[in-house]
Amino acid sequence: MQTRRPILLERLHRRILAPLFDRLGYDLVPADPDWSHRPLSAPEVDRLLANAATILEADLAAAGIPVRGSVRGMVDDFWALIPRAPVRQRRGGSGFNGALQLYVAMRALGPRHVIESGVFRGLTTWVIRQACPEAEIHCHDPDLSGLQYRDAQARYATTDWSHTGLRGLDPSATVAFFDDHVPQARRVVEAEARGLTQLLFDDDAAGHRIHAHGGPAHPTIAMVTALRDDPEPIRWLRNGRAFEQRSDDPLIGRAAACIARAHAFDDLHRATGYSPARLTSVTLRRSGTVPAGAGP
Description:
- The chain is an alpha/beta fold.
- The chain is built from nine helices and nine strands.
- The strands form two sheets. Strands 3-2-1-4-5-9-8 form a seven-stranded mixed beta sheet, with helices on both faces.
- Helix 4 packs parallel to helix 5.
């Protein structure tokens, strides 16, 4: 569990540093991860875990992911594990809710092989390892210098995942997790071409919420499914700059033809109080079943 900061440092932060940064227009916040703050009384802990398990159970069912065992048991396991996470991050990366969603999804899927594109400090690699202790994990990130956790059994590469061979990997026993700020539609097309069928995405921003997100690469999965049904362009303003995603983008048609099922998980904030998460499960059509004439 995260230890309490020294009293002198707390006073310095409260009386001098925070007011100074406030006058400069910035927020100065501790680097403590959000999971270092938690309820302690048994009834409140039980309520948090039970509510999260109920929502996750519904999400797994909606995503078409069968569950072996108890979802509540998985949530309980995660609650016990997360205080020991070797990565401490406040800004960027996954918080409690995102890590919980990934842990439960990976436990339910039980892959023998995992491809992780976008590693950042290594928290999600650690979560995947806790959920799938026997899995072969392939981590891809152009910059691995910021790792706080390096998995002893994982294979690391600074090349893009689409440029490396998948020799020895059974596509039907492989899950790819993308948190790499590359257009998600592109990742769908790449994964389908390599025979993968089960994908997980972080930061799948819907068109009506992307303006507040921080500018993820698009088209996102939510945009692919929305523009498949409604050709009206998605437009938004961020930091004074106008953006547009059109339905005639070639990636939209190609990715839409690959997707058999997509489900965005509940953000869990109402269940846990922690910062919202955006995990999306995508199931692809098996190679060779993409409708003829789809895409450009």
